[in-house]
Amino acid sequence: MRYKITGKQIDIGEALQTHVQTELGTVVSKYAERPTDANVVFSKSAHEYVCEATIHLSTGLTAQAKAHATEIYSAFEACCEKMEKQLRRYKRRLKDHHRDRSEPVEILGGSSYILASDNAETVAEPETLQPIIVAEMETRIQSLSVGEAVMQMELAGAPVLVFRNESKNGVNVVYRREDGNIGWIDPTA
């Protein structure tokens, strides 16, 4: 597994980097067969240290955790505990689905656009109905089952996830509803 351990405007020493690699490696190897890379970022917010960790697995899952503490090692330990809890839930759900993924998740490329919001100061009618594109980026659309998409969305803490449905080869959307349930959009052909 590749590690990228950095600090935002703080210096992290070799001892902390070694500690992160051994502890995170132990947690990840316990629950995941083929982790690809881990990104751990330490920063300081007022009097607290913040640790943010992101782990990418070969199955396409991205697990994220974030923790705060007054000491940098305590922040990492709390973050590591959250990561372990996510990976444990992920593994349990995979077992519940009775399906082991032997191949990595297929990823399709796509374009993602950021559109300019309507400015409240300009009350006049716009000249065209075409939105103004502020930025254009590449995005990844994973090929997943509906259950895996819901799991991926929950583990990432995202409100919505766009994915390609493996069973129908169509683009689908899962999202968190205001009532706490999960919505699924499956367009007809």
Automatic annotation (TrEMBL):
<comment type="function">
    <text>Required for dimerization of active 70S ribosomes into 100S ribosomes in stationary phase; 100S ribosomes are translationally inactive and sometimes present during exponential growth.</text>
</comment>
<dbReference type="InterPro" id="IPR034694">
    <property type="entry name" value="HPF_long/plastid"/>
</dbReference>
<dbReference type="Pfam" id="PF16321">
    <property type="entry name" value="Ribosom_S30AE_C"/>
</dbReference>
<comment type="subunit">
    <text>Associates exclusively with 100S ribosomes, which are dimers of 70S ribosomes.</text>
</comment>
<dbReference type="InterPro" id="IPR038416">
    <property type="entry name" value="Ribosom_S30AE_C_sf"/>
</dbReference>
<dbReference type="Pfam" id="PF02482">
    <property type="entry name" value="Ribosomal_S30AE"/>
</dbReference>
<keyword id="KW-0963">Cytoplasm</keyword>
<feature type="domain" description="Sigma 54 modulation/S30EA ribosomal protein C-terminal">
    <location>
        <begin position="130"/>
        <end position="183"/>
    </location>
</feature>
<feature type="coiled-coil region">
    <location>
        <begin position="73"/>
        <end position="100"/>
    </location>
</feature>
<dbReference type="InterPro" id="IPR003489">
    <property type="entry name" value="RHF/RaiA"/>
</dbReference>
<protein>
    <recommendedName>
        <fullName>Ribosome hibernation promoting factor</fullName>
    </recommendedName>
</protein>
<keyword id="KW-0810">Translation regulation</keyword>
<dbReference type="InterPro" id="IPR050574">
    <property type="entry name" value="HPF/YfiA_ribosome-assoc"/>
</dbReference>
<keyword id="KW-0175">Coiled coil</keyword>
<dbReference type="InterPro" id="IPR032528">
    <property type="entry name" value="Ribosom_S30AE_C"/>
</dbReference>
<dbReference type="InterPro" id="IPR036567">
    <property type="entry name" value="RHF-like"/>
</dbReference>
<comment type="subunit">
    <text>Interacts with 100S ribosomes.</text>
</comment>
<comment type="similarity">
    <text>Belongs to the HPF/YfiA ribosome-associated protein family. Long HPF subfamily.</text>
</comment>
